[in-house]
Amino acid sequence: MKDNKNWVMVGLGVVICIMAVAYAAFATTLTINGTATIDSSWCVQIVNEEITCQSTPAVGGATGSVTATATRESNILATVNMTFTQPGDTATCTIKFENCGDLKAKLNKIDITGIDTETPIKFEVTKPELNTPLVAKGSNHEVTIKGTYVDTITSQPSTLSQEVNVVAEYVQDMSTD
Questions:
Q1: Which residues contact 62 (CB under 8 A, 6 or more apart)?
Q2: What gap in Å lies between CA 147 and CA 92, rounded to an integer?
Q3: Hey, what domains does the chain have and what are their CATH numbers?
Q4: Sign of the four-CA dihedral 150, 155, 161, 166
Q5: What's the rounded Cα separation, in Å, for the pair 177 and 156?
């Protein structure tokens, strides 16, 4: 019986040692100090110098019979104004969105509003596909708006001006390509 008591005492001692080590392991406070620095910039915007418009009067039409202007309203919004006077007039405006930062970007959304389909002015819009990347600094996307006063009309309409807004939304491209 005495031998059994000794074994019980030794067992209890081992259990107490294990509990003490476990308590010490869980009660220890681990402190990690560090510093992180981000050395990159996010910037996608319309560059004023990259907005161009070209007007072409109808065959035999007077110079200045059609006008087109595009204005940068903000980093991501441009307004295009076109005014036509005779059938066959055309105008084309091109707006460039440029990656001026260090981070890769991709086109998330593009809205082109203000096109009235009930006028004799017909528009063709060329724009990049959604999720198209702007990988490197200086790379760009172009949006082209071409307006044409159709030459098949039989009477002069009252509205020969059109204002079109172009807004693009870019997000960071997290792809690893």
A1: 85
A2: 6
A3: 44-172 (2.60.120)
A4: negative
A5: 54
